[in-house]
Specification:
The complex is a heterodimer. Chain A has three domains: 242 residues, 3-Layer(aba) Sandwich (Rossmann fold); 167 residues, P-loop containing nucleotide triphosphate hydrolases (Rossmann fold, 3-Layer(aba) Sandwich), CATH 3.40.50; 76 residues, no CATH class. Chain A is α/β, with parallel strands linked by helices. Chain A has 18 helices and 20 strands. The longest helix of chain A has 18 residues. Chain A starts with 7 loop residues before the first strand and ends with a helix. Chain A has a six-stranded mixed beta sheet with strand order 6-7-8-3-9-10, with helices on both faces. A six-stranded mixed beta sheet of chain A has the order 16-17-18-13-19-20, with helices on both faces. Chain A has a four-stranded antiparallel beta sheet with strand order 2-1-4-5, covered by helices on one side. Helices cover 34% and strands 24% of the residues of chain A. Chain B has a domain of 207 residues. Helices cover 74% and strands 1% of the residues of chain B. Chain B is built from 16 helices and two strands. At the A-B interface, helix 10, helix 11 and helix 13 of A face helix 1, helix 11 and helix 12 of B.
Chain lengths: 507, 334
């Protein structure tokens, strides 16, 4: 039978989240002892599929086979018991415990009636580490004292100690230095050859995929595109596969004159993620900021509006330098911000829509002693939510009772009510259905037409291509490229974001 | 406009169970009220009711301060100790300078300012130095209690009746007002309750306190200085604690360093029974007061039925657990 040649086979997998289809009839096959890359843009469904494989979430329909037998995984523990381990970007390690304790965290006292045999625990950990060639990691070391790379190794050792047959790595090198990456690759190749482990490798870095992977599967918008052997494909072809279909035409037309430059950021620095950022934006312009997750987009914005303390840099509005130390200063200086994480940063879920909408501009509705003129407030909020076509039973309803798209509209209302001149949107359409997306695009367009200065950060390349007059592509905390008008294509964005043919373009 | 179409139509009748869960604080309060008045004929007498109302004065004002702190998602364990400090210092001060009624009022104001300053220190430690509220206020609980004993090496301070200021304070604590014979202390806290209720409902201060507790990061990113609101909650809480201490001293005509021991726990329990969430962002002034009196009523009826004090504490604890389980059920049902 054909299935028996595969270590992992996932067939016709479907998964929806609250009506939004995350995976549409996708498949994945991984042979024993191969490193299989899983690629696609942000939101293509890679992580969702891996979560299904590891039991963190349940599929709606479809089949999963392990070594030819159908499996029904209900929880991460069951997946572990079957030999499937997944290593997320945030490790599941206990920082204050030692390496040995972490490796055997679920079996600390297995055959010792509740007492830990420290000698045996450390001995087994030592043995495992030696076997994998990590003589320099001490089993008695506290995990939080290790480098990120070694923490990752501990995580891998932990899963191998359970005799994993399938190892899933989600962007393992995102936080590693070059040297650490080398180290990790050596380990992965060893595992593949000596232990016949199948590795599913999620990464955005093309060069890595070509270096260590044997085959690649590409997803796009929750659908399966193709699977090929790495040796049958080159970088350009892979990029084309990831972009795939032509763009749908749901970006409404914008009709506006771009005015003079209003907002400028000069030499902004903040740690590793924000290095020497320089750019300007004009009145009526929509500037896109693109780049992969972890490229420093959000960090740059947070440094601009004072959500994080910046190390250095100048921020000017209308040629006047602003002193922004906290988000309050930003709003006071007419720079408004829509955070990317709606639930944790954008809205107050328990509070009514009315309270959410006016929180940035409450002083406009207050008289002596902070007395709130509720009638004015209600009138304005009703008008605003009406204009935004926000669907709610009343503006007194708590935000948590709304759908994702409508919650986002509340967050947007708050930004618009703040009456800022510069509007910075970080992922304005994340977690929002297609209908609401279109409305949000139309709203951003009308704001640009009214003469606002707009910066839009987005992981969705189609959005940057469809919406922006100009785009900056971030990579490793710097601006890797600037694209104007018709230059803004997914091809070019990916090129800069992933550093394809970097040597040629850098000069 | 498409507003108010689908969701409005869905409004259905609540089942009795849902109704009970929604208004559980109120319903439990009235059930206890009815049971108590049936269980003991002396419960609903004017004397007993006024007695309970007067006894609860310090707890009520402290609960109001604590409500603000809890709304921001914090906690203040120091309230009882700060009350003891306030109670001791006011007695010492009045005995020293209480020649006139005016100097009494001045002393009270000085004490309240002192409370505000203590709260400011705690607030800064919590918001700027980023110390956990639990630890910060635990430290102040110890410091406050220790200080209260240190002032007089542990001796209580009896108010000197010869002095007009001290006499005024004693009269305030023990006498009743001409209005229906309501005790003065009760009138004072009724006014304070009204102020709190209005501030929390109708002013930006109240709204932003609640918002800060609901999701501090979101509020900060909306351009509001969250730290300012959190710090002011502690300032008000300590100020209310000092006021509580003054009320205790006025009532007893004596400042005791061991006064108000554990009162902060009764105040917190009152808030929680009234549906205040310990994780912040949820709580009402009216329900908090109801919570405080629910607890007070339980204690009072058990006293009237002459239940011994040890089992009383056990029963009180069990009732708190029951109340909180109900709160959880009702918030889940939402």
């Amino acid at each position: 039978m054909a299935e028996q040649t595969y270590r992992v086979e996932m067939k016709n997998i479907n998964k929806s989240f609250g009506g939004v289809k995350a995976l549409n009839d996708v498949q994945l096959t991984v042979k024993p002892g191969e490193i299989h890359a899983l690629m696609g843009e942000n939101g293509a469904g890679k992580s969702t599929l891996m979560k299904i494989l590891s039991g963190a979430i349940q599929k709606d329909s479809g089949q999963v086979f392990l070594d030819g037998c159908e499996i029904f995984v209900k929880s991460p523990k069951e997946a572990n018991d079957l030999g499937i381990s997944i290593i997320y970007q945030e490790f599941a390690l206990v920082p204050h415990l030692t390496v040995a304790e972490n490796i055997f965290i679920d079996r600390l006292s297995e055959d010792n009636k509740g007492f830990i045999s420290w000698k045996k625990l450390r001995g087994s950990a030592r043995q495992l580490l030696d076997e994998l060639g990590f003589n320099d990691i001490k089993e008695t070391e506290i995990v939080s004292d290790l480098s990120i790379a070694y923490q990752q190794v501990v995580e891998i050792v932990k899963s191998l100690s359970r005799n994993s047959k399938v190892l899933v790595l989600d962007e393992p090198t995102a936080l590693l230095t070059n040297k650490e990456t080398r180290h990790l690759f050596r380990l992965l190749l060893d595992l593949k050859e000596k232990k016949n482990v199948s590795i599913i490798y999620i990464s955005h870095r093309l060069e890595e995929v070509f270096e260590i992977c044997d085959s690649v599967t590409v997803f796009k918008d929750g659908t399966y595109v193709d699977s090929v052997d790495i040796k049958d494909i080159n970088e350009q072809e892979l990029v084309t596969m990831m972009i795939g279909r032509e763009m749908s035409d749901y970006f409404p037309e914008r009709n506006c004159k771009i005015g003079e430059e209003t907002f400028r950021v000069t030499d902004l620095n903040n740690g590793r993620m924000v290095r020497n950022i320089n750019f300007g934006v004009c009145k009526g312009e929509v500037l896109g900021i693109s780049g992969l997750v972890g490229s420093g987009r959000t960090e740059t914005i947070r440094a601009i509006i004072g959500a994080d303390k910046k190390e250095s840099g100048k921020i000017e509005l209308y040629g006047k330098e602003l002193n922004i130390k906290c988000p309050r200063d930003a709003f006071k200086n007419k720079i408004g911000f829509l955070p990317e994480d709606r639930k944790n940063q954008g809205v107050l879920l328990e509070l009514p829509i009315r309270h959410n909408a006016t929180i940035s501009c409450l002083s406009r509705y207050t008289g002596p002693c902070g007395w709130i003129y509720k009638n004015n407030e209600t009138k304005d909020v009703t008008e605003l939510t009406g204009k935004m076509n926000l669907k709610c039973s009343s503006i007194e309803a708590p935000v948590k009772s709304l759908s994702g798209g409508n919650q986002q509209k509340v967050s947007l209302s708050k930004l618009i009510a703040s009456q800022c001149d510069v509007l910075i949107f970080d992922e304005p359409t994340r977690g929002v259905d297609v209908g609401a997306k279109r409305e949000i695009y139309a709203l951003i367009n009308s704001l640009a037409e009214q003469g606002y200065t707009i910066i839009m950060v987005s992981s969705e390349m189609a959005e940057i291509v469809g919406m922006c007059d100009r785009a900056l592509v971030f990579r490793n905390g710097t601006i890797a490229g600037e694209l104007n008008g018709s230059e803004i294509t997914e091809q070019n964005i990916i090129k800069y974001a992933m550093g394809v043919g970097e040597n040629a373009t850098c000069n | 406009m498409q507003l108010a179409t689908d969701s409005c139509a869905k409004k259905t009748r609540m089942t009795p169970g849902q109704f009970f869960l929604k208004h559980n604080t109120l319903i439990i309060f009235f059930i206890l009220l009815i049971i108590s008045s049936l269980a003991s004929p002396s419960f609903l007498t004017k004397q007993n009711v006024f007695n309970v109302l007067r006894q609860q004065a310090p707890i009520v004002v402290m609960a109001l301060g604590l409500l603000l702190v809890l709304l921001t998602g914090g906690i203040d364990l120091s309230a009882g100790s700060i009350a003891a400090v306030g109670g001791m210092l006011i007695a010492m001060m009045v005995n020293k300078v209480g020649n006139t009624v005016g100097s009494l009022f001045l002393s009270v104001i000085v004490m309240l300012v002192l409370g505000v300053i203590i709260g400011l220190i705690m607030g800064v430690l919590i918001t700027k130095v980023k110390m956990p509220a639990f630890i910060t206020t635990l430290a102040f609980m110890t410091i406050g209690r220790g200080a209260a004993y240190m002032f007089t090496s542990g001796q209580p301070v009896r108010l000197n009746k010869e002095l007009p200021g001290a006499l005024w304070l004693i009269n305030f604590g023990s006498k009743t007002s001409p209005a229906l014979g309501i005790p003065w202390a009760v009138i004072v806290y009724a006014v304070i309750i009204a102020i709190f209720a209005i501030v929390m409902k109708y002013t930006s201060f109240g709204r932003l306190i609640i918002a800060s507790g609901s999701n501090a990061e979101a509020v900060r990113l909306s351009g509001v200085s969250v730290n300012k609101y959190i710090t002011s909650a502690y300032m008000i809480c300590s100020c209310m604690a000092v006021l509580g201490g003054i009320l205790i001293t006025a009532r007893a005509a004596i400042g005791t360093p061991s006064a108000a021991d554990g009162y902060e726990m009764d105040a917190i329990a009152g808030c929680v029974i009234g549906g205040t969430s310990l994780s912040g962002g949820k709580g009402k002034v009216g329900l908090t007061i109801l919570g405080v009196f629910t607890l007070a009523m339980i204690g009072n009826i058990m006293n009237l039925l002459s239940i011994a004090s040890y089992p009383q504490q056990v029963i009180k604890g069990l009732i708190i657990i029951g109340a909180v389980i109900l709160q959880n059920l009702s918030s889940k049902k939402e």
